[in-house]
């Protein structure tokens, strides 16, 4: 199997429980909740995505013929020895492409593997850290993992039901759009009302990181 990667880059994880950790991000092309084209946004299940995951970027991504090639590129991107290697598989929706061969190759290269998924496809059991970001209107089949990160507000999201899912950490992240200030207030209000949740901010945007 080949892999279509929109971009790959070394940065600091900006969101969630792992925020601040040095990481290689592998952003896969393609998603099952939106085509990525603006003309399709109004008809998509996920309408607020702020990420470009269409096609491949020849400068920082590409099409990899096999899992070993992708893992080798991630090692080269890490460029810091073998200690504490950390890779984040994201998208788009990474589970459209992640398979046994890729997980095995990344583990063999010494990576701790995290994934950021919309939860509509079962996550590979070999992944070490599972972050699910559910989108209202989609069918969530992955209801267990390490962290549940809910972008807020999302009309139609059943917060009470999500509290019954099997996640160690429940995070609320303000939607970054034209109503960002109001969304931050709404997210903080939810955490104050439901203390099992914690506020998650997009620190990479505050710091000017990718």
From TrEMBL:
It is an enzyme of class 4 (lyase). The keyword Nucleotide-binding does not apply. Its EC number is 4.3.99.3. PROSITE patterns: RADICAL_SAM (PS51918). S-adenosyl-L-methionine binds at residues 48-50, 92, 133-135, 173-176. InterPro entries: 7-CO-7-deazaguanine_synth-like, Aldolase_TIM, QueE_Cx14CxxC, rSAM, rSAM_sf. [4Fe-4S] cluster binds at residues 31, 46, 49. SUPFAM superfamilies: Radical SAM enzymes. Its cofactor is Mg(2+); S-adenosyl-L-methionine; [4Fe-4S] cluster. Binds 1 S-adenosyl-L-methionine per subunit. GO terms for biological process: tRNA queuosine(34) biosynthetic process. Residues 18-210 form the Radical SAM core domain. The keyword Amino-acid biosynthesis does not apply. One of its GO terms (molecular function) is S-adenosyl-L-methionine binding. Mg(2+) binds at residue 51. Pathway: Purine metabolism; 7-cyano-7-deazaguanine biosynthesis. It comes from the Bacteria. Keywords: 4Fe-4S, Iron, Iron-sulfur, Lyase, Magnesium, Metal-binding, Queuosine biosynthesis, S-adenosyl-L-methionine. Belongs to the radical SAM superfamily. 7-carboxy-7-deazaguanine synthase family. Catalyzes the complex heterocyclic radical-mediated conversion of 6-carboxy-5,6,7,8-tetrahydropterin (CPH4) to 7-carboxy-7-deazaguanine (CDG), a step common to the biosynthetic pathways of all 7-deazapurine-containing compounds. Homodimer. This is 7-carboxy-7-deazaguanine synthase. The lineage of its organism: Bacteria, Pseudomonadati, Pseudomonadota, Alphaproteobacteria, Sphingomonadales. The gene is queE.
């Amino acid at each position: 199997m080949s892999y279509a990667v929109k971009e790959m880059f070394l940065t600091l994880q900006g969101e969630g429980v792992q925020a601040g950790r040095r990481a290689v991000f592998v952003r896969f092309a393609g998603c099952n909740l939106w085509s990525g084209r603006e003309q399709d946004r109004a008809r998509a299940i996920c309408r607020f995505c702020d990420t470009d995951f269409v096609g491949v970027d020849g400068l920082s991504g590409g099409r990899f013929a096999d899992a070993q090639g992708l893992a080798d590129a991630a090692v080269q991107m890490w460029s810091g020895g073998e200690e504490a290697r950390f890779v984040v598989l994201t998208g788009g929706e990474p589970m459209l492409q992640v398979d046994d061969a890729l997980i095995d190759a990344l583990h063999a290269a010494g990576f701790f593997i995290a994934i950021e998924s919309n939860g509509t496809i079962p996550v590979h059991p070999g992944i070490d850290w599972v972050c699910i970001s559910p989108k209202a209107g989609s069918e969530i089949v992955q209801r267990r993992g390490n962290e549940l990160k809910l972008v807020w507000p999302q009309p139609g999201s059943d917060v009470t039901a999500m509290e019954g899912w099997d996640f160690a950490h429940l995070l609320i992240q303000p939607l970054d759009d034209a109503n960002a200030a109001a969304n931050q207030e709404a997210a903080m209000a939810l955490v104050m009302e439901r203390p099992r949740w914690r506020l998650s901010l997009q620190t990479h945007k505050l710091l000017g990181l990718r």
